[in-house]
Amino acid sequence: MPSDHTSIDSLGIDVLKKALNQRVVITRSRIVPSNRNRVWFVETDVRPVVMKRSFTGRSPVEFETMLLAKKAGIDVPYPLFMDKHYLVTEFIAGESCDLLINHMFSHDAAGGLGRWFAAFHERLESFGRPLVMADATLQNFIMQDDRIYGFDLEDASHGEPLDDLGQMAASILGSEPFFTPIKFDLCFTMLEGYEDESGLESLESVRPYVAKHLRNSARSKPLFRRPFEKVAQTLERGWPSLA
Fold this sequence. Notes:
Blueprint: H1 10-20, E1 26-32, E2 38-44, E3 49-53, H2 59-71, E4 79-82, E5 86-90, E6 95-96, H3 97-102, H4 107-123, E7 125-126, E8 129-132, E9 141-144, E10 147-150, E11 157-158, H5 161-173, H6 181-198, H7 207-218, H8 225-237
Antiparallel strand pairs: 1-2, 2-3, 3-5, 4-5, 6-9, 7-8, 8-11, 9-10
Helix pairs in contact: 4-6, 5-6, 5-7, 7-8
């Protein structure tokens, strides 16, 4: 694996020193794919960490949300340090839920995602209103030893919990292979996990939110716009019979 030391500037090095509270030696680093920020996996002589250079200015929001989640017993990486532009967290080794759902068709991962969201919505609130993740996609979750960990919480805010479930369902259905029966089964397993953990009905209530997020996804997938729109229209009437 090639080293990527030159991608971490002097400010990033200072942040790592503050996060680990001592002189730190970077042994290896690499860029992690991210749509909005610059993220590194960094191995040091102290411990491996993940460092994010935020271009949204929301590192404080993500840091605070992670602290609240950890205190509430929700599985997220432990936040180690933040300033206006950087966030450093512990590194959690595991399998991406993108891989587990889209390639291995793991019902354990799907059910775990639903239970994670139920805990997040039930235990995290601010001024009496629930917090939502607002970036509920498969790429933002990993599974380690049968436990689901969520990250990329910079968009967390007050909102409608069903919108998180709708976005996750759309992420499952709208990732290749698109809209296959096994994908609908995995989507249902995720929603069943949510219902089992929360005691709240979600299967029917979530349909319009799934349709909304499929339409949003279609904007970035122009070649697949028609099937995405067709499934969204179907979901506004009910779950398709093929599922």
